Amino acid sequence: MITTRLPLPGPGPTPDRPHSYGPGTPHTPLRPSWACRADGEPWPCAHARLALKAEYDRNLAALTIYLAGLMYEAMRDLYHLNPHDGPGPQQMYRRFLGWSPFRRPIFERPE
Predict the structure, then answer these.
(1) How far separated are the first and last CA of the chain, in Å rounded?
(2) The domain containing residue 80 runs over which residues?
(3) What top-level branch of life does the organism fall under (predicted)?
(4) According to the model, what pLDDT value does residue 55 have?
């Protein structure tokens, strides 16, 4: 039997990276606002990006997959908090995947 209802997705990856390598607060996201726990910047902040690139240095494809899963979770959280003024898909792509090693340019319509 074919239905048009899809099951609700389960919880995505847990944002537990990058790991903390010192006594300070780790640069992990604070949900549901997706701000960095350490500096309050939108996550992934510059420190988190650097740490993630170092942590996933030998497996950059895994970094992209991890970030794509977190982007989905962030979109769900941020749109739930503010469905009318939340960040757009292009902003979320640039924030989570635009800086990663395996990225594609966003399609822009010709004018």
Answers:
(1) 45
(2) 29-96
(3) Bacteria
(4) 87
